[in-house]
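dumping the sequnces here before i forget
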Amino acid sequence: MSLSYYPGCTLKTKAKNAEDSAIAAMAALGIELVELPRWNCCGTVYSFAGDEELHQLAPVRNLIRVKETGGDRVATICSFCYNTLKRANLLVTSNPEKMHTINTFMEEEIDYEGDVEVVHLLEVLRDDIGWETIAEKVQVPLTGLKVAPYYGCTLLRPQEIAIDDVERPTIMHDLLKALGADVVDFPYATECCGSYQIISNPDYVSQRVWDILSSAMRRKADAIVLSCPLCDANLGQTQKELMQTHSEFKGIPILYFTQLLALALGLDPEICRLELNYVDPRPLLESKELLRQ
Amino acid sequence: MEKRIGVFVCHCGLNIAGTVDVEQVVEAVKDYPDVVYAGNYIYMCSDPGQELVRTTIREQNLNGVVMSNCSPLMHEKTFRRVATKAGLNPYLLEIANIREDVSWPHENEKELATKKAISIVKMAIEKLKRNVELTPMVVPLHKRALVVGGGIAGITAALEIASAGYEVIVVEKLPYVGGHAAQLAGTFPTLDRVPCLMAPMIAKMISHPKIKVYTNAEVDEVSGYVGNFIVKIKTSPSYIDEGKCNNCGLCLEKCPVTCPSEFDCGLAERKAIYITPPETMSQKVLIDPGNCLHLNGDECRACEEICPTKAIDFLQQGITVEKTVGAIIVATGYGLWDKKNIPEYESDPDVIDGLQFERILSPSGPTGGDIRRPSDGKVPKQIVFISCCGSRDPEHGFTYCSRVCCMYIAKQAVLYSRTVPGGQAYVFYMDIRSDSKGYEEFVKSAMEEERVLYLRGRVSKLFRDGDKIKVWGSDTLSGKSVEISADLVIMATAMTPREGAIALARKLNVTVDAIGFLTEAHPKLQPVETLTTGIYLAGTVQWPRDIPDSIASTGGAVSKVLSMFSRKELLHEPTIAWPDEEVCSGCGICASVCTYNAIEIDPIKRVAKVNEAVCESCGACIASCPSGAMRHKNWNARQFMDMIDIATGAYV
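..and the predicted 3d for all of it:
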């Protein structure tokens, strides 16, 4: 089975570790991720501007690309891409007038009719494959690895596009349990990481990141698992500074769920590109004997 | 006989005349066939207006009157009284509603409104021409009342009616009376201890010679009609021979099953055999059949073996009694919304609802009056109240305000602050609604004298953090996020209809609103009546209320019952259904659609028979009769056709 896959810009640059591990892991589960031809920027941040139609051109154009391939479903890995594509889709499908305006504006393209489904890879794992099947295919159970799933906000907000229960999501918990990990629940799992405030208000973000990390560590997590490259950047990059301000803090690895999936399925750890993670997770994974060749 | 019809057009100030050209209406009908008089006046319902109608009937020798004014719900009775006084049969007076049906909905279409008003008045004239003189029927009246629910409203109702000299039957579902009020620690704003309020009432009710209380009982079936309701009351067995039991309590010690106590809202345990709580003034031993091992097939007979008076009777059966009552007061109270409905507020033993905190604050509660939290029995030093949990929150719960929470939060915060030295209470609120006597002052004193900290904002999340519960909220007045490390959190959950309220409403033929509260006949003018004559509402079965408001509404319901009981007999409207026996084939479709069970098929004549005292003239039987045999007095088919002719002709 193959599935149309929208990477987005970050997965091709800073988050190669997310993309490579995802493609390899999905192949091991029998699903070929086929990169969408001629994809463009997802729109990055969903716009609240009054003349929002213009801001929906980028995501809608991507959905048109999916139609052009003859498909009706596209998967994302980056939570931000998921959010913008899914919300643009929701806007045009619930608002035929706006869909008409957009189609008229992009007269060179075929008309979009709201007929493409946007899904996140976690949903594919849950709905198309199922936790039991994944558990059966695990070669290297993540036994003894205490991981705290961190959802951030873009997978769950607004409620209409949430991939799981908005307040108490379990989808990443369930995946990690299927992979054999010890899942650590923590109250900051659905809190915002500070997002783009990192540019204009970095002190605020480092305070938030500290709250998130320290909460997970108080609950004895060895690592944090997530799906969003922006959360990854904030939670990972800020740690150097936090180590200086909090002398007892020695850092905590941040991993993409796709990396742990690939490892657990017994794939070559090289494919996980662990050297790209902001905080090197290899010592931790080695100590748990999870980096078998 | 020659028809002499008078038409009276009311201005209702500007309510009608501001939209409808009343002069034009008079002009349009004054020469209409059979109309001998048409006039208008600013307020027909006023004394001079009524006088005008009365004198005109006499002077013009009218034998039919059309009042064109407001809805018949408002003044049909008024003008029919006027007609009677003037010597005209009241059923020869018809109302043409040109206010609710015309001027109000067509405020911006004056021409159309006038045209429609004329048409409606002409329709009423046409209907009136075929009206016949009718006389209300006399119905017997049983001067005994049924009160459903033994909470503070039900007890009040029972005592008031009984003290006027009439018999009362009280049916309470639980094994004890007292309701939610008996569970409370105190009242606002006076901080009375509730047992001091309730105990004399309950004691008086139980010993009152005119009151019979059935506890552990439910209303099983209701039939009949006002003055003559036949009620089946079904009691559940207590499995205890009350004549033998001496309340020694040995059985409670031996019983191996513990389960959560309903009265203590799950904060304490009781045995499967237990004594009703002391607050309810009626200490009785009974077995809870849901939890008793023996009653669920086990061999255990621990209580029976230990009982020195042989009072345990596992074979005891419930009884069903049938009583005839003239009036029913429904006072079944409220339910409490489950706090689990808000997933952001973590389920935790130290996150409780307002009623649970009442028990903790109560001197006879599970902690004996010490304020201790459920998880580990520690005295909470920081407590947080969250108001509007489910109320005014359509996303999770309901749009309405539960009306009591602002005040009970203030009361609980005051009781807490006075009991725990150094303790700090925080209250997250949206608005403080303290709109009754002494309420605003009480909240102010909670803030200023008891140093309760009020934060205007919502709580976004609660979670357990070691020994504490972290409370995240916002203080919208300072614009800051707030984090409080609380020892105990109290959620002021919404007051909702009680479980089973809808089922009871169906049995009683009473309507419920979209939420499940029982509805009054008219929100302004008939606030304690239901649409079923003879059934009245008291207290929170109707809407969230505090104790004074519940008592006041109970007083309203009681006065309706007493005013009915002060009559010798009842009169029933004569405008009801009747079968034309020449045409009726006895098919029985009418009987099957009658919600009031007013129709039966005569077994010998094989025709429908209408119980005239029960028929509420809804018309369902008439609409469903395949042969057109079922008729309506003063609403026959010819009248409808004549009216339709006018209605359609006017708009051609």
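Chain B touches chain A at residues 343-344, 461, 463, 465, 470 (CB under 8 Å).
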